[in-house]
Specification:
about 50% helix; five-stranded mixed β-sheet; homodimer; 5 helices
């Protein structure tokens, strides 16, 4: 079972793949999509959309987790990242893959077991849980792997629930 | 010269076409795209994207104006509408059409001549300026026509500026 996690962003958008074999999790690749401020707003969105659309089509994940955004201060940033999130959700839908939308709290709980965990704790536990030789970099890719781990948990829980 | 205006929304997304012939403006069609709350979030975005993509491809506007959002209170609403705005900008970019992003203030100034104009004044002046037999409905479609008028103004101003 292959899960993909996406950490939405306009300038840098992280992605990561996690494979569940039996009861153990393994990292199955990660990276980031970067767009330049020199690109127009539409161009940046098109670039993110096309890269993710190709990645999903190539790797055929069973589920894709896209983190829900949580902002309480900068509305302008929230709106820019949400525009990127819109085209990310479109890429998932266009490929007909099941979508999971974990909150930052759920991701921290799934990976560290504690909703108030720090960014460093999440990255450290992601490396441990996926048996990675070294820390996934940049942080956006590590976050995407954490989102993928959380999505596997949600998927497993739902599977048990449904029988 | 044909301009399209889009009033971004997740549940209801308005669009309108305005034609500039010589020095006069004419309404060239308007409507709304509605999505149901029963649809998944990705499905709604896909529906909006595909409808707008087809409309732009069929009508071949010279420019598309997509209103900039202005929110200062409800961040959750701002984020949902921004997701829709993301797929709208993608549809414009995919068709290679020039994008104009007027603010609500610029739209009001272009149509009523006054940045603090009410919604009713904008709708009334839109009908007058485009010589429409009756008020465009629903409001989201009338707003989209106002955005198209403003986009024609920006386009004309830029044309004069560039020579």
């Amino acid at each position: 079972m292959l899960a993909m996690g996406i950490d939405p962003g306009n300038a840098i958008c992280g992605y990561g793949f996690v494979e569940l074999k039996g009861n153990s999790l393994h990292g199955a690749g990660h990276g980031v999509i970067r767009t330049s401020p020199d690109m127009g707003r539409g161009q940046r969105l098109q670039y993110i959309y096309e890269k993710l659309h190709s990645l999903i089509r190539e790797r055929c994940p069973d589920i894709v987790g896209v983190e829900k955004l949580f902002f309480n201060r900068n509305v302008t940033t929230a709106m820019t990242v949400s525009e990127a999130r819109g085209v990310i959700l479109l890429a998932v839908e266009m490929n007909g893959v099941s979508l999971i939308e974990p909150t930052p709290l759920q991701v921290k709980q799934a990976v560290v077991g504690y909703g108030q965990a720090t960014k460093e704790q999440v990255i450290y536990m992601t490396q441990r849980l996926l048996c990675l030789d070294k820390k996934a970099t940049p942080d956006d890719a590590a976050d995407a792997l954490a989102i993928a781990i959380c999505s596997v948990h949600s998927w497993s829980a739902e599977k048990i629930w449904r029988g």
